[in-house]
Amino acid sequence: MATKLSQEELLAQFETLTLIELSEFVKAFEEKFDVTAAAAVAAAPAGPAAAAEAVEEQDEFDVILTGAGEKKIQVIKVVRELTSLGLKEAKDLVDGAPKPVLEKVTKEAAEKAAESLKAAGAGVEVK
């Protein structure tokens, strides 16, 4: 009989997967259990005051690579460090700019990632 893994053990196993492998796993999981792994979408608040309030409270940021610059290899190395993507995936991301490198990260993490990418010569935007 198979041993049941704890949440920590499962998370440790998922940490070793590449994004592509994890994506394939999610698809297989959805098919096997007939579920969708989509995040729930909350209703947007109405009115301009509510929209302004939502902007002020933003706590998740996206780091978007807008261009590789002249030091493409250095940018690919930084992308790999930030995302743990494989070489091919990181190269494809850099070649396909503008593309998000990190999504829904804290302000500090977004600023640090943007600084690293800029130091490597990339064009970066934080949203």
Please explain how this structure is put together.
By secondary structure, this protein is of the alpha+beta class. The chain has six helices and three strands, in the order αααβααβαβ. A three-stranded antiparallel sheet has the order 2-1-3, covered by helices on one side.
Question: Nutshell version of this structure?
Answer:
The protein is an alpha+beta fold and 127 residues long.
Q: Compute the CA-based radius of gyration.
A: 18 Å
Helices, by number, come to: 6
Number of strands: 3
Question: How large is the share of residues in beta strands?
Answer: 5-15%
Q: Characteristics of this structure?
A:
127 residues; alpha+beta; 3 strands; elongated
